[in-house]
């Protein structure tokens, strides 16, 4: 059986060192079999660069734009207007990442909630999947999504790190969970259990590069999209599948979730 092409559904190609060698990083990923990537741009200042990068790599690279909860305190009305414009552009396939982060609290929680809710409101009339950042804020994230009418709509909790009970609640609302290299870490038993229990037709993977390098390259800094192969291989063993089976299915799931054209 030939190895299928993989997709990294969540990477930050304009973050840190990756921004200084983006072309090489993309080329290395493609060579490793990671032929498609969704570049997440959640800093207002990098939206234009992200869109330009996507145009250069059309058919290989797509974009999601949003305002990260860390930056919520600085969000302006002009930012929301510009964000709404980006969500209507070709090649932009997701809204986010957006959400709440109660671990760092870089922005006040009420401000985070208001900015998250505003983005959900703007996106509600569009057919864009929502890419959610949720850290130690499960109840409030779920509450705001439901309040804005997102039950049963395309929502993915990226880099899922919650409990089995929390995952079950998300799945019950029709939402997805995406997994990073953190599932390969020995201490993350509950994350591994969630990955093993995720529905076959609602699972996919990401690197969150330049962060969260998986085993056996955990010391690699920065992480790169090509490393997703290690996460998928580990997840396949968790789920009692072959690497080829899970790689093919998770890629197909991701293409469907983000409405990517399989002919590209």
Write the layout of secondary structure elements.
Elements: E1 6-11, H1 22-31, E2 34-41, H2 47-56, E3 61-65, H3 77-86, E4 92-101, H4 109-123, E5 130-135, H5 138-147, E6 155-157, H6 164-172, E7 176-179, H7 189-197, E8 203-205, H8 228-239, H9 243-257
Parallel strand pairs: 1-2, 2-3, 3-4, 4-5, 5-6, 6-7, 7-8
Helix pairs in contact: 4-5, 8-9
Please summarize what this structure is:
With 264 residues, the protein is of the alpha/beta class.
Poorly predicted regions are none
Give the CATH H-level superfamily. Answer: Metal-dependent hydrolases
Query: Helix/strand/pairing class, anyone?
Result: alpha/beta
How many domains in all? 1
Largest sheet: 8 strands, parallel
Characterization of this structure:
The protein is an alpha/beta fold. The protein has a single domain (6-257), classed as Alpha-Beta Barrel (TIM Barrel), CATH 3.20.20.140. It has 9 helices and 8 strands. Strands 1-2-3-4-5-6-7-8 form an 8-stranded parallel beta sheet. Strand 5 (130-135), helix 5 (138-147) and strand 6 form a beta-alpha-beta unit. Helix 4 (109-123) runs parallel beside helix 5 (138-147) and helix 8 (228-239) crosses helix 9 (243-257). It is globular and about 50 Å long. The mean pLDDT is 96.
Please give a handful of descriptors for the protein shown.
TIM Barrel, 9 helices, single chain, alpha/beta, globular
């Amino acid at each position: 059986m030939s190895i299928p092409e993989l997709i990294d559904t969540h990477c930050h190609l304009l973050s840190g060192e990756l921004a200084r060698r983006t072309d090489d990083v993309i080329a290395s990923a493609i060579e490793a079999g990671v032929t498609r990537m969704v570049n997440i741009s959640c800093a207002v200042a990098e939206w234009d660069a992200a869109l330009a990068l996507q145009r250069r790599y059309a058919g290989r690279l797509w974009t999601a734009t949003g305002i990260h909860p860390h930056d919520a305190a600085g969000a302006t009305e002009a930012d929301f207007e510009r964000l709404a414009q980006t969500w209507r552009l070709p090649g932009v396939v997701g809204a986010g990442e957006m959400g709440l982060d109660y671990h760092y609290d870089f922005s006040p929680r009420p401000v985070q909630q208001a900015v998250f809710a505003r983005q959900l409101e703007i996106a509600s009339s569009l057919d864009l999947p929502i890419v959610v950042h949720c850290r130690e804020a499960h109840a409030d994230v779920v509450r705001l999504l439901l309040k804005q009418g997102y039950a049963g709509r395309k929502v993915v909790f990226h880099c899922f790190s919650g409990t089995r009970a929390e995952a079950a609640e998300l799945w019950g609302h029709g939402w997805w969970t995406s997994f990073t290299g953190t599932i390969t870490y020995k201490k993350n038993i509950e994350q591994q259990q969630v990955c093993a229990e995720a529905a076959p037709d609602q699972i996919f993977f990401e690197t969150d590069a330049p962060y969260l390098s998986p085993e056996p390259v955990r010391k690699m800094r920065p992480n790169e999209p090509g490393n997703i192969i290690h996460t998928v291989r580990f997840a396949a063993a968790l789920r009692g599948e072959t690497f080829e089976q899970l790689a093919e299915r998770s890629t197909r799931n991701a293409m469907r979730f983000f409405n990517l054209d399989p002919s590209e």
